[in-house]
Amino acid sequence: ETIHIQTVSKKYNVFVGEGISQDIAAFLASNFRKLTRVLIITDETVAELHLKHLLPQLSEWNPVVYTAPSGEKAKTFEVYYQALSEALENHLDRKSLILALGGGAVGDLAGFVAASFMRGIPFIQIPTTILAHDSAVGGKVAINHPLGKNMIGAFYQPEAVFYDLDFLKSLPAKEIRSGFAEVIKHALIHDSTFYNWLISNINDLNDLTMNQLSYSLVKGIQVKNHFVSQDEKEMGIRAYLNFGHTLGHAIEAEMGYGNYTHGEAVMIGMIFALKLSEELSGLSFNLEKFTTWVEKLGYQTKIPHHLSYDKLLSKMKQDKKSVGESVRFVLLEEVGRPILREIDDSLILDSLQKF
Ligand code: NAD
Ligand code: ZN
Questions:
Q1: What element of type H or E holds 229?
Q2: Span 190-217, average pLDDT
Q3: What span, in angstroms and rounded, lies between the C-alpha atoms of 26 and 22?
């Protein structure tokens, strides 16, 4: 399956399928005739599992591999610096290309290396997590600063995305859950048909068929693309992608990154936002059915009990997406119809207590 992505700055394809990464060499040969060298940026876990499936076809471009630590540790200044050193020491030039083999962390790192090395060289995303259906589309690339996540980055689009479903077969349950929460988010904010399909067809995340996985990723990517293609630099509707993230980010931060995966925290945030939507924006929704469904899929649906509501609120207020005094939430009027609402602190605290 191929999804065409059209942004203001670039047009490219997302190829989704089992074994699709085997087409990369042919893509390079026909699109980059003067290609001097490729740098593969990956992480320790993914290198061990999947590098051997990618490397053989690339030999004519003399590939160099830079292996970052797994997870969020890939997005530090030190790792960024090392990746650039690797590129320079191995004489990559402006006609070279970067392949990002890994999840969202590797994609963000490799994309930022590509955006900044010699003022920008082409890169290709080869996502290996479900969450990366989100991060690989939209052109945001970044590393972290000790003072904030994703604070140093760029808007930079890949030449293509090769989403090989074979690579997803090794994902641990927690990572599947994390990524699938964003799939569910994409359905809720834009596509009620897709949402109805999900709730009636997906009942075990550890036993997804390749068809279910492929359909879920393709739909999720299409929704993400809908919001970012019209709003590449995040001025308006792109904000709707933040559904569930206001409280989600606060829970993630308060729990300490690494305890809850991003998607697991966002799921709790979505349930909270759905509840607010019922009360404030006229959403008519079977929240009980939803909650039962996601619990069966393995998600937590309540705020971890030791977290303080006051601290969660102050984290929400620090969120760079809140404006002025009150916190801005994405709510739904209907499944598929998001709106932005500023909500007073007292109402938030009240709702957190009742939640
Ligand atoms: P990740 O890249 O850290 O991957 C999660 C874990 O799974 C890592 O430990 C990784 O080594 C492992 N892993 C990856 N692929 C695997 C596989 N096939 N089999 C077994 N293990 C595998 O994280 P993620 O959840 O994919 O993405 C989260 C990152 O994405 C965050 O840094 C977040 O900021 C970023 N993000 C970016 C955007 C964007 O628009 N750029 C959007 C959402 C999230
Ligand atoms: Zn997210």
A1: helix 210-229
A2: 97
A3: 8
Is 306 tagged catalytic? no
Q: What mean pLDDT comes out for the span 110-128?
A: 98
Catalytic residue chosen out of the listed positions 185, 249, 275, 315: 249
SS3 39: strand
Say yes or no: ipTM exceeds 0.95: yes
Q: Are strands 38-43 and 123-127 parallel, antiparallel or unpaired?
A: unpaired
What sign for the dihedral angle of Cα 82, 86, 88, 93? Answer: negative
3-state secondary structure 279-347: HHCCCCCCHHHHHHHHHHCCCCCCCCCCCCHHHHHHHHHHCCCCCCCCEEEEEEEECCEEEEEEECHHH
Render pLDDT for 308-336 as a digit per residue (tens, 0 to 9): 999 999 999 886 555 567 899 999 999 99
| Ligand 1 atom 43 nearest Cα | 135
Q: Structural domains in the chain?
A: 2-170 (3.40.50.1970), 173-354 (1.20.1090.10)
Instruction: Name the residue among 252, 116, 249, 270 with its Cα closest to residue 184.
Output: 270
- Mutation choice for ligand 1 from 129, 180, 225, 242, CB with most ligand atoms inside 8 A: 129
**Does the pLDDT of residue 64 top 90, yes or no?**
yes
* Helix, strand, or coil (residue 120): coil
Q: Is 4 a catalytic residue?
A: no
